Amino acid sequence: MNGTRELAYDAIVIGSGQGGGPLAGAFASREHRVALIEREYIGGSCINEGCTPTKTMVASARAAHLARRATDYGVRFDGGVAVDFEAVRQRKRDIVNTFRTGSQRKLEEIENLDLVFGEGSLAGKNAVLVQRKNGGEFCLEAPRIFINTGTRPLRPPIDGLDEVPYLTNRSIMELDEIPEHLLIVGGG
Description:
alpha/beta, FAD/NAD(P)-binding domain, four-stranded parallel beta sheet, 4 helices
């Protein structure tokens, strides 16, 4: 494939999310040689942009809510409750990073499993082209290829949306402050 090197495997899994990592590990544990290709971060949408970060931020919001209602429970505060938004975001980032690095470490310890960072795309019936961020590319081959590419935010086709600032599930968790007004479109 135009000067790219080819490596043969028993199975290739594209995407290290909730299905990809366990699937690659299951094949490897049965002594199959497996390549697990990940474009960016180990753990997929749940760990990096979905379940873990949102539940972490919800836990902080819940703690603030309960603190503000403390007198309803017979608890008195001498001062008010203040939320350090940067500390909330940093806690979220730290927890995501802990989950991500722990998952990566576990995958790296599995025999017969090669963790490959790059963007995988089908290059034939049994071939996947891997493009590295640095521009390098190579081809992997296997009789079994599994696509586990997860989710991405979808910008709905709404007239005028391109003309206003909008947030996605990713960008909203990185805001510096809580917006004064927020309209939510969709219920995913």
